[in-house]
Amino acid sequence: MGVVLRARFDGKAIIPDEPINLPEGTVLEVEFRVLPPEEGAASDFAPLYRMIGLAEQGPVDASVHHDRRPEDLIS
C-alpha cells in the first residue's frame, strides 16, 4: 500500500498534517522530499496561534513561565 501525505518536521519527529488511520506501532518505510515553503502559509503562524490559545486555556501565571514552550504550559 502506498500513500502520499504532507507532514512537518518539528526537530525530533515527522508530524503528519492530517490524521493517519494506522494501528499504533505499525512499521513504515518513509521516503520524503523537501517542499519549498508556501508564501503566507497558515503554518507560518502556528506558534502565534498556540500563544493566543494560552490566553483562553493557559495558566493565570503564564507570565512567570514566559521562557517555557506553550505546549508545556497547557494542562
Explained architecture:
With 75 residues, the protein is of the alpha+beta class. The protein has one domain. It has helices at residues 46-57, 70-73, and strands at residues 7-9, 14-16. A hairpin with a 4-residue loop joins β1 and β2. The radius of gyration is 16 Å and the shape is elongated. The chain starts with 6 loop residues before the first strand and ends with a helix.
What's this entry about, in short?
The protein is α+β, with helices and mostly antiparallel strands and 75 residues long.
Strand order of the largest sheet: 1-2
Oligomer: single chain
Which of globular, elongated, flat, extended, rod-shaped describes the shape?
elongated
H/E series? EEHH
Helix/strand structural class: alpha+beta
Helix content: 10-25%
Largest sheet: 2 strands, antiparallel
Number of helices: 2
| Strand count | 2
Report how far apart the termini are.
38 Å
Number of domains: 1
What is the C-alpha radius of gyration, as a whole number of Å? 16 Å
Q: How much of the polypeptide forms β-strand, as a percent range? A: 5-15%
Taking pLDDT < 50 over at least 5 consecutive residues as the criterion, the unreliable ranges are none
Mean pLDDT: 77
